[in-house]
Specification:
- The complex is a heterotrimer of chains A (about 775), B (about 160) and C (about 280).
- Chain A has about 775 residues and is of the alpha+beta class.
- Chain A has 19 helices and 28 strands.
- With about 160 residues, chain B is of the alpha+beta class.
- Chain B has helices spanning about 25-30, 85-95, 105-115, 125-130, 140-150; strands at about 5-10, 10-20, 50-55, 55-60, 70-75.
- In chain B, strands 2-1-5-3-4 form a five-stranded mixed beta sheet, sandwiched between helices.
- In chain B, a hairpin with a 2-residue loop joins strand 1 and strand 2.
- In chain B, helix 2 (about 85-95) packs across helix 5.
- Chain C has twelve helices and 14 strands.
- In chain C, the strands form four sheets. In chain C, strands 4-5-10-6-7 form a five-stranded antiparallel beta sheet.
- In chain C, strand 2, helix 2 (about 35-40) and strand 3 (about 45-50) form a beta-alpha-beta unit.
Chain lengths: ~775, ~160, ~280
Amino acid sequence: MATTTIIKKHEPSIGKRLRRKEDPRLITGTATYVEDLQMPGMHYAMVVRSPHGAANIKSIDTSAAAAMPGVAAIFTGKDILHIAGVPCGASLPGLRVPDHKILAQDRVYFVGHPVAVVVATDKYVARDAADAIEVDYDVLQAVADPEKALAPGAPAVHPQWPDNTAFTFHQEGGDIEKAFKEADVIVKERIVSQRLIPSAMEPRGVVASWHAAEKSLTLYTSTQVPHLVRTLIAQMLGIDENRVRVVAPEVGGGFGSKLNVYAEEALMSFVSMKIGKPVKWIESRRENFLTTIHGRGHVDYYEVAAKKDGTILGIKVKLIQDLGSYHQLLTPAIPTLSVLMLPGLYRSKNMSADIIGVFTNCVPTDAYRGAGRPEATHGIERMVDILAAELKMDPAEIRLKNFIRNEEFPFPTATGLIYDTGDYAAPLRKALETVNYTELRKEQAEARKQGRLMGIGICTYGEICAMGPSPATPAGGWESATVKIEPSGKVTVMTGVSPHGQGEETTFSQIAADALGIDVEDILVQHGDTAIVQYGIGTFGSRATAVGGAALHFALQEIITKIKKFGAMLLETEDITYSDGQCTCNKTGKSISIKEIAGAAYRAMKLPANTEPGLVATYFWEPPNFTFPFGAHIMVSEVEKETGNISIKRYVAIDDCGNVLNPLIVDGQVHGGVAQGLGQALWEQAVYDDNGQLVTGEFTDYTMPRAHMMPWIESGHTVTPTPVNPLGVKGVGEAGTIGASPAAVNSVVDALSPLGVRHIDMPMTPEKIWKLVNGRNA
Amino acid sequence: MTQSVTITVNGITETHEVEPRLLLIHYIRDVRGLTGPHIGCETSLCGACTMEVNGKAVKSCSLFTVQADGASITTIEGLAIDGKLHKMQEAFWNEHGAQCGFCTPGMIMTTKQLLDRNPNPTETDIRHGIEGNLCRCTGYQHIVKAVQAAAAVKA
Amino acid sequence: MIPHQFDYAAPKSLDEALKAIADGAKPLSGGMSLVPMMKLRLAAPDRVVDLARLKELSYVREEGSALHVGATTIHYDVESSAAVKSKCPLLAETAGFIGDVQIRNMGTMGGSVAHNDPSADYPAALQALEAKIVLKGANGERTVSAADFFVDTFTTSLEEGEIVREVVVPVEAAGTGTSYAKVLQPASGFAIVGIAVRVRKSGGKISMARIGVTGLANCSYRATAAEKALEGTAGSDADIQAAAALVAQGADANSDLHASAEYRTHLAKVHAGRAIKAALGKTA
């Protein structure tokens, strides 16, 4: 006979600022990152890398290193010929794809290119042995700048092709010729989104362990996409996929740079197979800078045609993408995302884009927080400000005039997307109100009279995320979830997304807790281990909650259906309600708990009709569309004439990411995103010299945002749920970054506009600004 | 050529033979098995390795273990007493001062020292007080709030 | 990240340490300059001798009209010392600009001074203070003025076998105003330029002006032209600007990714003006 056991009365947790379940291990230093792993017999690997941007390898002498005590093995390019090259998952018509072996063959193509790997019993020995390996190079002329690489006579990055163009891509929408013919005004500008170094605080690392007797591989790797790594590493090495286990342990940040398959993941697996021992490889920060993918790398030539009343008629871009020397997983696809978002939030249906993907003797570019969308937003938001200045229109007014109107959603864009929902005026108006815009412009006028350079910069951004409908993605864009209720009634969620700071252990617990009517603490969320979690795509593209959370939602629905079936059977009536973790007979009020139902489902004394024992549901959810968050950021700045220093007086971010499941976590994503956007605008740049040497090779020269450099971010929201997923969630991980750099540059250009400045390229260093203030070319 | 060092870490004293060149961060992580402090750079700029050596927050990547012979060290693992979190740890939890967690142990050790020395820091004091610690995830705002929250806790 | 192998000794007395140094051992104090170089394998001494354990070298002592700072005194102790803050505030202020909190908990006066990084902070203050650097070797001790001590990039007048034993700075006369203005290289935290200023007024005129500059050139220096332009004036804004305009005179400005020679020189002038004004604001 069922007893009535009441589990804690459930309080809805969605929408609450719940502190995170991840945190206890992080704040006590007891989380396990890949460098923390120890295994019996574990060896240490160090990679010897090219110091040249381009060179032929004449010889490699490993004899001195091999003789050193503690050195177990050394491998070079000739040893890995049987291993397939590092894969590129993106395909474009006519794409030139260089064979990307995991160790260099007869030639090196970028500083940092792996040439040899030395394996020792101790990492100090490995370091000493690496110094003892002698590589004789015949140095060639390198080219590191994409426009220089396109110029006639440029050194050939890959000499098998007649020039350094890896691909060209053209996309058109509407009638661009007509738009430009009918224009009253055409504004043009060259806009650079400079190469950036993602710089997750945890460098990449791998512990690979080959189990010879089972012909199986366990690969611990700091990754955002464990299942994808598993599939691709298995392919590269010729191992059965079902005998490869990939584990993402605690991962210390990714921002897209760990959405990839890297040479070292295959290389260390190979090493472990050869030496019969586990092997650990952790990159230094310098290696991280040299060999982990870079972000951005655009030189964009924009043209915008408009009527004199400010109506945008059409947008053209010639987009030169610095690809680097090879294709990593998504390298050539990233600029196509820029093209998709070319028109931003604006209604114009006329567009034309030409991408030229260029090889350079640099590390490849690939996805980095925003992956193509910050570049596109930066471009269109700069152009709208330039247009506004040309027409002497207020930048807020010109935006309001051109926004897609609320009644036009779902909106088919010029680039073939369907924007889901939007209320673009709402965050802009809220941001304008927050800064008291009219008063602020008065304050600015007053400041200008005093000769002070005060600027107000607006960015209204739209972004495409929640990647995405599978036909539009290289490896599938669905996501998976399993909900498992144990005999004791405890709940385990296994999600195919792979969080590395985004807090899904908490958010997904909230989703499950509210659906099941139980306590957040009774749920365990597992991820990142391909031996535990069903196939998933991973965390990137602001998709984890919008796609992964939706999969969880549907798995929960299935399990609740099953719970109710058992509940009805045990209560002997169909007239039941399920809530707060209880099935209750509506007539008598008799109830049984989820714990009792679980017990019954596994004990299986009696089963409902057509129902399996157990209480597990797995759901693979295919999203019908991307989602399209949007928002408005405003930055108020003042430029100090004497020094070019920019001080940020105010930073307001109003973001619409649809429904907000945990405001604390969402705030954190906005803050971190804004920091990276401001980083691009003000401080960061990956600088290669003409020999392909990375001048900004360590934190000593690559300026990272630090606490004293950051403004206080006033963060707010409007909420326009998306119909694309049942949670109404759009995704927010990248939005802050997308909104920040245009707001910052628009602000400083506004500050300097009385001096005739119309555009400034990032980063806006004090010296650059000082030169502009003094009327010279930066 | 190794030397003997006797070092107390989180209250536990041990003696080991180490090479003079063994960095303190490697000793703590690999010999003492405390992997809370992390390695994020090799130019002493990220602060992920921060721990207290004889009461002073230092970057353990920039000391040799032999320099710490005889020292008393506190790492992040030693902050909670009998399972009760230090108020800074509790504050980081409540204010969402950690996202990926990699900078967190070093950040907490630095902010603990900050508060020990300056119990009522201004926002500027806090932001400058953590200038030796990089975080790529949070934009620092919730970290600042965590320090403010910890400062507000009466002993 | 991982240095070459070396031998380490922690002598119990300064004499023992000096004998080892005379024998070729490299002195290690706070290690905030040496250890990073060894980790990048830019420095690879065979033997290192640890001075930081010699407690007798860590002190701040007032003796007559001077403050004596021992070689292994950490920057935090200089920054927070009541004696330094009240008697030689420029030194305390400058110490607070060095690196970050963790660096200041380890880095030492002697180590920093002996390393003479052209972008370090102390040299600007020590030049302006006309500090005396006491050098000691196995054979004895000698005192060198700051101006003579700081010779070139990473080069001082230390002879082989000598260490910096202490740095002597004046107890500021009453009414002296001081200020250190620094432009930080935003990635490393070193000085793009750093200007240390000391001024005194008498009868409404500037009777003493000392200006030390770091970061601008290959080595720190006294901006004597600027000092002379300031002395004897009333210290009006125009006087300050005129003096500040001379702060880079004779200096061959560095140029790098973070600041061109032209911009660096300009910043030196701007910040000299600000430091002078701030210092004047603190005069009695």
